[in-house]
Amino acid sequence: MIIKEYRVINNCTRDEYQVAQLYAVVEASKEETGAGEGVEVIKNEPYENAESKGQYTYKIYHLSSKVPPIIRALAPSGALELYEEAWNAYPHCKTVLTNGYMKDNFKLVTETMHVDNSRGEIDNALNIPQNLLEKREVVIIDIANDPIESKDYKKDQDPTLYHSEKTGRGPLKDDWINTAVPNMTCYKLVTVEFKWFGIQNKIESFIQNVMRSLFTKFHRQLFCWTDKWYGMTMDDIRALEDKTKYDLDESRAEASLAKET
Q1: Is 160 part of any domain?
Q2: Residue 34: predicted pLDDT
Q3: Residue 79: is it exposed, middle or buried by C-beta count within 10 angstroms (0-12/13-18/19+)?
Q4: Looking at the whole model, is its pTM more than 0.70?
């Protein structure tokens, strides 16, 4: 098991981030869905239990077109689908990702605490027990200066170039983490379990690297979309989520029908 805590500093408030994150998730879902693949939202509804209450989502990620053809041909049924359950009790959130083929041998858990007026300096924002603290590696993510893959670079999603007309924020330059106002940090504890003899450590390390890249790309987009989400309410977000679910379902259905004919 590999445990890393990613600390993503953002140039916004914690309340703003709640809307911004959900907006960015919707936009990312649109980008990833097409040709019968992508994100399928099964549930998106309020929940309440003895520990917390918030919004529960259950999604299926259809990945067939995202992997090489030889893998698609060899992979057993269920191997190319990921199942995501998320409990969003903001400012605390938990996401669990599993796979139908791997079952209990694969689990990716992300637990996040969103902290206002923070620049990543809190040592244990998630109240991790001592035994996990000893295994945890802390990784600071700088969305403006950390390197990203060339295929992920887009000029209009570059925080070092973006300036928000609505808020006056940006571009994010040099030592922005220590100077930007407002600020908040997403403290993300990521635990990876991949039980497969001989390749476990290699795959777990690979997945952690992928998670770092995803967090970096996502939060670059979130900042550069400031003028799109700034001023939206939670009601606006829920309406957008409902419309997007309908559109994505239609897109997948049309693509599947086209394949059959």
Answers
A1: yes
A2: 58
A3: middle
A4: yes
